[in-house]
Amino acid sequence: MAGQRQTVRDGLLVGAIGYVSVALFFTLFDLLAGRGPVFTLNVLGKVMFRGARDAAILQLPIPADVGAMAMYNFFHLVVALAVGLFVTWLVEQVESRPERGIVVMVVILGGYVGTVLTVARLSAGIAPLLPFWTVVVVNTLAAAGGGFFLARAHPGLWQRVRNASFG
Predict the structure, then answer these.
(1) Average pLDDT value over all residues in the chain
(2) What are the Cα distances from residue 34, in Å, to 23, 37, 38?
(3) Whether pLDDT at 167 is above 90
(4) Contacts from 110-115 at CB under 8 Å and sequence distance 24+?
(5) Does pLDDT of 46 surpass 80?
(6) Which residue spans within 31-160 are E strands per DSSP?
(7) Which of 138, 27, 11, 28 has its CA nearest to residue 78?
(8) Between residues 160 and 19, which one has the greater pLDDT?
């Protein structure tokens, strides 16, 4: 039971790291672009929950939609926490059976690529406001942050996977 609680705690932390990484990246991105700190959050909220699809009508100035931003923020938090829990569960599977390591790495990498491609496809209509490179960078930052945490929480795991997989 204690091990399961630790897995859940770690999964929630990994999800929170990913969530915060994305939020900080887009806040900085928007500030540097001179659009205000919640521009991307506002656009994504309007696209996802208000049906806005045309990048031309989402150009500056864009009125803030606090409700859409809150709903998108909640959605993003739930997804990030779910991903964190799933990835941490996968790492626990490898911890108990290191020979599963290569399969788990392929699943995690596939999830990363799938996420990037899905977000890029779903946001194609607003690509001028949310360029593909930002989707790649932000997902890489989130994955690296979560991966760093998990590597510290499971010291020596990579070595055990390597030894079990490649002798």
Answers:
(1) 90
(2) 17, 9, 11
(3) no
(4) 111/83, 111/87, 112/139, 112/143, 115/83, 115/139
(5) yes
(6) none
(7) 11
(8) 19
Both tokens of residue 109?
């990498």
Answer whether the bond into residue 128 is a cis peptide, omega within 30°.
no
Position 19, amino acid: Y
Q: How many CA atoms lie within 13 A of 91 on its CB side?
A: 27
Task: Summarize the confidence of residues 59-63 as an average pLDDT.
Answer: 76
Within 10 angstroms of residue 16's Cβ, the number of other Cβ atoms is 17
CA–CA gap between residue 68 and residue 121 (Å, rounded): 21
Minimal CA–CA distance to 89: which of 140, 146, 141, 19? 146
User: What are the structural domain ranges in the chain?
Assistant: 2-166
**What is the Cα–Cα distance from 70 to 42, expressed in whole angstroms?**
9
Q: Tell me how far apart the alpha carbons of residues 148 and 61 are, in angstroms, rounded to a whole number.
A: 38
Cα 145 to Cα 154: distance, rounded to the nearest angstrom:
14
